[in-house]
Amino acid sequence: MSTHEKIEREIARLSQKKRKERTTQEKVRLLQLKLYLKAKQEKKYKFYILYDKIFLHYVLKEAYNRCKRSSGNSPGIDRQTYTDIRQYGETKFLREIEEELRQRSYKPQAVRRVMIEKENGGERPLGIPTIKDRVVQQACKIVIEPIWEADFDNSSHGFRPKRSAHGAIREIRDNLKSGKQTVYDADLSKYFDTIPHDKLLIALKERIADPRVLDLIKTWLKVPIVEKDGRYTGGRKNRKGTPQGGVISPLLANIYMNLLDRLVNKPGGYFSGEGIRMIRYADDFILMAKHINQETLVRMHGYLARMGLILNTEKSKLVEAREESFDFLGFTFRYDRSIFKNGTRFWNIMPKAKSRKKIRQKVNEMLKKRGHFNTQMLVYELNPMITGWMNYYRVEKVSYTQVAFRELEEYLRYRLNRYYNRKSQRKSRLFGKQAFEILVRDYGLVRPYRTSGIRPVNARR
């Protein structure tokens, strides 16, 4: 059965249900499937009436639930949290948003900016909108995302439904095995901060002809940003950038980069004629081919310049993968010699050294920060950290993670034994014992080496 037939069958199944019997998720699913199917069937169709769908009650309710699940309880500039909204009344809160959107009186508030640490030791800005603005952005995303999903290239893996970094890693592995072993690892400088608003809106107008939706998106692009010291930046005079942290920002970033996806991966185009394939995850992308010449790189630089984007020439590099390893999305790709199969070579895909070091640092910092732990609380804190890291780096039948997982287990054994044996004032019953083994056996601590990484956690608050 084709994807098209599956979608039509799902639409028929949901449509047969009485409207009152459909759950909020089913109503949203039906709306999205219809929008996706229309966009898929008519590649040049422009959607003229979308705004009224954004403030449908079930769309706003689903948007609120998604925000509550994924965005944490960090407040925006108004300091309002989900706890405050529950006390105020969630239904009342959503009804007020619905009315503001209906009357077109909705105005987003300034975005609170915080700085978060990067893997290389620097910092990157993260914008935190108010919960109200997150809900409206999520509602808008629910409506317009399926339209663009019908257009996005299969080589785009980041911030998309049912896609992840694992898909990009598998595609890279397949390309390497097929002989595309010349890799151009590109690095865009401050992509989210440099997207030109005028060109982004042109890209949006390829599919969206409802001026009310376009105006709504423009208000988010022009919203002021409150810096840590209280200064206001951006605002109406701002001509570029989408605030990182906004719910809709990743989708807008994908819509703009889709222009490049189409240029590079278009059948019959210059790049495909050169045997080049682009794999992208948000603003991170690589070109892969049997050979990449200088003209190809000049063309790529030219396209990016026309899009108003800046390529970091110091960090971007051309690599012959058989001779030199390269990193992408936290993985290292290396052509290694097997120690078991008569020295045959294979593509070794594993967590890169910086990431392995970072997870050890996180464990160490947590133990230092917390001081004396209740044993159950210790396991409760450690397990999500360990399983999250393992689940990201475990790409079935692709990545070789056991060495990295064994290294993590050895560190946990050493660090936890040391942690309990150094308690001089409040000695627990684990003092002087093999604490790691006891925590695994009796408290459900995840054991990284040769396990699924998903074990029942017995510890409770």
Automatic annotation (TrEMBL):
Q: Which InterPro entries match?
A: DNA/RNA_pol_sf, Group_II_RT_mat, GrpII_Intron_Splice-Mob/Def, Mat_intron_G2, RT_dom
Which keywords describe this protein according to UniProt? Nucleotidyltransferase, RNA-directed DNA polymerase, Transferase
Keyword presence, Plastid: no
Q: Please, which domain of life does this record's source organism belong to?
A: Bacteria
What range(s) does the Reverse transcriptase domain occupy? 97-333
GO MF terms listed in the record are: RNA-directed DNA polymerase activity
Q: Which CDD domains match?
A: RT_G2_intron (cd01651)
NCBIfam families in the record:
group_II_RT_mat
Q: Which family does it belong to?
A: Belongs to the bacterial reverse transcriptase family.
Q: Know the name of this protein? A: Group II intron reverse transcriptase/maturase
Q: Which organism is it from?
A: Marinilabilia rubra
Q: Which gene encodes it?
A: ltrA
